[in-house]
Specification:
- This protein is of the alpha/beta class and 97 residues long.
- It has four helices and four strands; from the N terminus they run αβαβααββ.
- The chain starts with 8 loop residues before the first helix and ends with a strand.
């Protein structure tokens, strides 16, 4: 069941990412959190299949270095989303245990 969180979201996402044993799929407009990227790299290196879908824009090209993330075998897709889709923050996180 989908849940919405408006407070302590970083803590909640961290806890959920750490629970993953099979796969993690993330779809976000902008990925700027180093801690989340480090967790996803760690998970990928430990056998969890990780995929990220991001908006193909300057924020995602300039915010974090995805090099080690990609070399860990994780997949990152950049999509050219229309600007009206990315004006509001959104995140979709699918974690398989």
């Amino acid at each position: 069941m989908a849940k919405s969180y408006f407070e302590d979201i970083e803590l909640y996402i961290t806890e959920e990412l750490m629970k993953a044993h099979s796969s993690v799929k993330v779809a976000v407009a902008w990925f700027t959190n180093k801690r989340f990227l480090s967790i996803l790299e760690f998970k990928q290196k430990n056998g969890v299949k990780v995929e990220i879908i991001l908006n193909d824009d300057n924020t995602n090209h300039n915010s974090l270095d995805f090099t080690s993330y990609k070399t860990s075998g994780a997949r990152c897709f950049l999509l050219n989303l229309t600007s009206h889709l990315c004006t509001a923050n959104f995140v979709s996180l699918t974690i398989m245990f």
